[in-house]
Amino acid sequence: MPKNLIQQDLSPDALVTAIEDNAVESIRTWSAWPELLLQDDPELLWTLTDIPFGPLNCAVRPRLTADTADAAITASRSRASERGVPVSWWLGPAPTPDDLETRLEGAGFAKIDEMVGMGVDLRRLEDPLTRPPGLTVEEVTDSKHLRRWCFLMGPAHDFPPQALAAWHRCHHAIGYGPGAPWRHFLALVNGVPVATASLFFGAGVASIANVGTVVDLRGRGIGRFISAHPLNLALDAGYRIGTLWASPKGAPMYRRLGFRPYCLSPVYLWKP
């Protein structure tokens, strides 16, 4: 990205905007996957597939009005019902109208999470002090390694089996590797893959996502190391700001890297 388009503003308001805009841009990249329908309107961006997996059938960045909200919610539920798939709404830090959560609950949606939007000045990133024994990091550069990354990342995030192959097809269609907006990484201990992470460049900032470690090796600093690695690559590429969305459970690890919370995003789910 040209230097003049890399965001430098570290004010809280600017960071909140960047955290949301980066996430929305990352979802826009999904339109490269032929199995997914994406509609991007000023009031709402939504996606739809035949895969029974809420994150792939989602509505984000709601800027609805009191007059349009109910119709948008009904249409979202109807589209999902026709295909027999669940649909999720990621409200972001500034959803409108103010009573959108009440309207979603009235339409049969259940609140399943509240994600934490976090940001960091990459020049002040707290690097892990030591590399876990035997740990190396490899970038995913071909389809075979992408599949390996996907089938390690998915279970770490409790993806249902039917979503794993779809997630692989989606990210293969988007593209990856050095020079691409999406880059994926595998951490290996003594040559065995144990953790994953992704780096996405969008809205003038660098975000990390898809961070996961196999259950048996959690708590050993592997997740922290695999998170810091792509962020340092972003810093080397000239980026100033790192962002991410964390679960409340995962947020403390990112705090130890220097991230701070700036906003919340309620997440709602409807199942047919």
Give structural attributes.
Aminopeptidase, alpha+beta, 272 residues
Structure description:
There is one protein chain. This protein is of the alpha+beta class and 272 residues long. It has 2 domains: 12-115, Aminopeptidase, CATH 3.40.630; 120-264, Aminopeptidase (3-Layer(aba) Sandwich), CATH 3.40.630.30. It is 33% helix and 28% strand. The chain has an 11-stranded mixed β-sheet, with helices on both faces. Helix 4 crosses helix 5 and helix 6 (222-236) crosses helix 7 (251-257). The longest helix is centred in the first third of the chain and has 17 residues, at 12-28. The mean pLDDT is 93.
Write a concise synopsis of the structure shown.
With 272 residues, the protein is α+β, with helices and mostly antiparallel strands. The chain is 33% helix and 28% strand.
Compute the average pLDDT. Answer: 93
Q: Distance between termini?
A: 42 Å
How many individual helices? Answer: 7
Q: What global shape is seen?
A: globular
Which residues form runs of ≥5 with pLDDT under 50?
Answer: none
CATH classification, class level of the largest domain? Alpha Beta
Structurally, how many domains make up the residues? 2
Structural class assignment? alpha+beta
